[in-house]
Amino acid sequence: MSKHLFLVDGSSYIYRAFHATPHLSNSKGIPTNAILSFTNMIRKFIKDNSPEYFAIAFDRKEETFRHQEFKDYKAQRPPMPENLVPQIPYIKKIVELLNIPLLEMAGFEADDVLGTVSLKAVNTGFRVTIVTGDKDLMQLVEDNLELFDSMTGKRTGIKEVEEKFGVLPEKVADVLGLMGDSSDNIPGVPGIGPKTGMKLIQEFSSLENLLNNLKNIKQANLREKLETYKEQAILSKRLATIKKDVPIETDIESFKIKEPNRDEIVKLFTELEFKNLLKEYAG
């Protein structure tokens, strides 16, 4: 039986944790709601799924290559909530003290790190489950790679991707190049929505092939749109494509579940005043 690696999209987990628990802080006024909720979510996931291999990927605060290519990338998103900002270092510290590999790379998003590590894992014989609620990662799905939303219990395989996008996972970025992605402020081609985008990629197989064969588009106004926004479509596909070649050092065998660093965790949980967790780790 092949080895099974679980990779958690840590950045989406952080936001879920932040919104899942009402405001909470310790006696020094340090906000702790996201820290506590994130820790409990990760512990519950490990308890429920007993992963043999496990790692968590995070975004970093620096801009990525996508921002350099397109200054308005994700520009419509509000800044991180003020009382979440000081909790991020604590969350990452807890991941380290739980002895869970923490994956991140300056200049790249967590999605790119997940894409790179999951490809390497699949190529070395692993079955991979990416734990996320983010549809952007659907383009990574293949025979030995599925997405799992631990909040809803929903699994996404090739069939589910085809149902949503009308194409195989490796063509999802082509569809997004046409329809854009409002959640990331990726423009696409104005006036082309999901239905038309899917239909065009089904017919022409790739964005590049479509743009090289515009003479075959019978609908004049559609052909005109594609001619006008050709470069924008190519840029949009590039922005939507998850990288699989991030220069990150990874030894998948080192992702084996290990015992946490109990002494250091007890110190940190004492500072954060996590009484219930302290009982468990101090025992």
UniProtKB/TrEMBL annotation:
Pfam families the UniProt entry points to: 5_3_exonuc, 5_3_exonuc_N
Biological process, per Gene Ontology: DNA replication, Okazaki fragment processing
Superkingdom, natural source: Bacteria
Keyword vocabulary terms for this entry: DNA-binding, Exonuclease, Hydrolase, Nuclease
GO molecular function: 5'-3' exonuclease activity; 5'-flap endonuclease activity; DNA binding
CDD domains: H3TH_53EXO, PIN_53EXO
Domain called 5'-3' exonuclease: residue spans: 3-258
PANTHER family: 5'-3' EXONUCLEASE FAMILY PROTEIN, FLAP ENDONUCLEASE XNI
Protein's name in the database: 5'-3' exonuclease domain-containing protein
